Amino acid sequence: MNTEQYYLIILIIFLLSALIQLIYYLFIFMRFITYVSKAETEDKVPVSIVICARNEANNLEKYLPRILEQNYTDYEVVVVNDCSEDNSYEVLGTFLAQYPNLKISTVNKDPKFTHNKKFAQFIGIKAAKNEILLFTDADCQPESDKWIEAITSHFEDKISFVLGYGGYLKEKGLLNRYIRYDCMTIAMQYLGMAIRGNPYMGVGRNLAYRRSVFFANKGFGAHNHIISGDDDLFVNMHARKSNTSLEFRKIAHTRSRPISSLKVWITQKKRHLTTAPYYKFMDKFRLITELLSRIIFYAAFIVLLSYGFLWPLVSVIFGLRLITQIIIFVLSQKKLNETGLVAYSLIFDIFSPVINALVFLSNVLDNPGKNRWK
User: Fold this and answer.
1) Is 43 exposed, middle or buried (0-12, 13-18, 19+ CB in 10 A)?
2) Could you read off the pLDDT of 324-338 as tens digits, one per residue?
């Protein structure tokens, strides 16, 4: 094989990877942008909000009132105080005296029994009295007092799951920008694919489903031993096009307090990635295809440009993909009420597949403990 043939093969690979990238942008991410969320019912169904909290006293004190004071007539808030060693009990006790819609379930620490978040989640679901369950985290706050109303308005008879958007609060620093970028691009994928009829995950910061569906499917079932997955794996196993709706208007967003430590973020990311091998085959295929095609696209571009092989064509293809990326990212940023990420996304887009691959590889090598969630 001569040099020209070698670079011709790389060019073909580059063109194929660019085509795959454009398919994702134009048929998944673009669909997410043009989607209009519509309420299915005006009936205000009774709702149970479930929050698992371990050593979250400060966050509960700061964010829980935003949930307890929602503009909604019939709802309860079930907080599972899971083996907390801070003053969570005192904070929750104060709120209990103020808010009649607050219910507390306590899991006491037992050195003979360790458990993951799913156990605390199960305790909260058991304690909930209503059919519609809405989940968020102790470090989350709704963007508006219409959060419950917006999410639950989709629960007509055939709907069992509602997927929402849970973003992060904007703060200073590169890590904060990357966390918000990572969160946003993941949402573009799982919401876009759900609109296309392939709901494969949700986020526990903003997710709702029916209590009856949980128990009919034996709870978290075969995934009980996995650290994470109380949200995405449950959706991956049971959500379908016919029983899933989406709600990501601004009034239905939640915002979480972002991690400020790189080490802690890596630990959290590793925990989240423990669920990836358990996704359905086609979901894993779609996600891996996007990541690999992006890596190949950039690598092939660098090789072809460094050699100068048909550089006008290569530059046009690269520019077409770049313009598409910027336009769709700008529109997605507006859709999800994110700001200040466009310029950084051009760099993050190159390195995020590598970061995810390294974190996943580290996960495989470390074999993290199966029951630790905080």
Assistant:
1) exposed
2) 999 999 999 999 999
